[in-house]
Design brief:
- By secondary structure, the chain is an alpha+beta fold.
- It is about 15% helix and about 25% strand.
- The chain has one domain.
- The protein contains 5 helices and 11 strands, in the order βαβββββαβααββαββ.
- Strands 1, 2, 3, 4, 6, 7 and 8 form a 7-stranded antiparallel beta sheet that branches. A two-stranded antiparallel sheet has the order 5-9.
C-alpha cells in the first residue's frame, strides 16, 4: 500500500503554527524532508509538532513529539466525508494535521511519535519554547536536537477517522465506505467474485478527537472511557 504512495501533506497548517499559547497545548510547523517518501519525490512536506500529554493520574507532565506525512495511493480509494456526510473524496488534494481533526473517512499516513519527559511545569516549558521559536531565538529543529530527538523512524498507518461530532453510527456504516481498491484487474488479482482484501497488522484505538495520531499506550485515562490501546 505504501510502495506507490504519493505524499499529499499540505504546504502549511496555519492553525497549528498559530497555536502559540500554553492553554492550546500544541505547536507545529511544516518542514521539507524527504524521509518517508517512496514513489513521490516532489512533495517533501512533513509536519512536526509538540502536543501536551494526557496522563491517567490527571494533568500534563510530558510532551509528545509527532512527525507525520499523509499519502494517497493510485491503486486505492480513501473516502472522505464532510460534517454533513457528503462525499468530498475527489476534492481533497492535500491534508494537514488540522484537517484530520474534523474529517470522517480514511487516509494513509506515516507517523513517528515519541514522548519527551521535560519536567513537571509543562505549561511554562511549552509557552517559553513557542515564544522563542516565534521570535526567531531558536528553531524547533534545534530544540528537538538539544532534547536528543533528531532521528525520524516512521511507521505506516491506515488512519480511519470517525469523530464524535456528526459521528457515523453503526446503523449507517454501510453508506459510508472508507477504503476500496481501484485497480482494473482486482477480480483476477484476488481470486474471482466475492473475494475479500485482507489487511493484516496491529491496530491502535482511542477516543481523543482532538489528537488524531497514534497516542502511545498509557497516556489516556481508561477510567473515563478514553484510552489508547495497541491490540497487536
Amino acid at each position: 500500500m505504501f510502495d506507490r504512495a504519493i505524499n499529499i501533506t499540505a504546504d502549511s497548517d496555519t492553525t497549528l503554527q498559530n497555536s502559540n499559547t500554553a492553554s492550546s497545548g500544541i505547536y507545529g510547523e511544516v518542514v521539507a524532508n524527504k524521509v518517508g517518501n517512496t514513489a513521490d519525490s516532489k512533495n517533501k512536506n512533513m509536519i512536526v509538532f509538540l502536543d501536551t500529554v494526557r496522563n491517567p493520574d490527571g494533568g500534563n507532565n510530558a510532551l509528545n513529539v509527532v512527525f507525520v506525512k499523509y499519502f494517497n495511493n493510485p491503486y486505492y480509494k480513501f473516502y472522505k466525508y464532510d460534517a454533513n456526510g457528503r462525499d468530498i473524496t475527489d476534492s481533497i488534494k492535500s491534508l494537514n494535521y488540522t484537517d484530520t481533526k474534523s474529517m470522517h473517512g480514511a487516509t494513509i499516513a506515516k507517523f513517528c511519535v515519541k514522548k519527551l519527559d521535560v519536567g513537571s511545569d509543562i505549561p511554562f516549558i511549552f509557552s517559553d519554547l513557542v515564544f522563542q521559536v516565534t521570535k526567531g531565538k531558536i528553531t524547533l529543529d534545534n530544540w528537538l536536537a538539544a532534547n536528543e530527538f533528531s532521528k525520524v523512524d516512521f511507521s505506516d498507518y491506515i488512519v480511519l477517522l470517525n469523530p464524535q461530532s456528526n459521528h457515523i453510527s453503526n446503523d449507517n456504516i454501510t453508506q459510508y465506505p472508507y477504503l476500496q481498491t481501484v485497480v482494473s484487474d482486482t477480480t483476477a488479482l484476488f481470486g474471482g467474485d466475492n473475494a475479500y482484501l485482507i489487511i493484516s497488522g496491529n491496530y491502535m484505538y482511542h477516543y481523543y478527537d482532538d489528537d488524531p495520531y497514534p497516542i502511545p499506550e498509557g497516556e489516556s485515562d481508561i477510567s473515563e472511557g478514553r484510552y489508547a490501546m495497541d491490540a497487536g
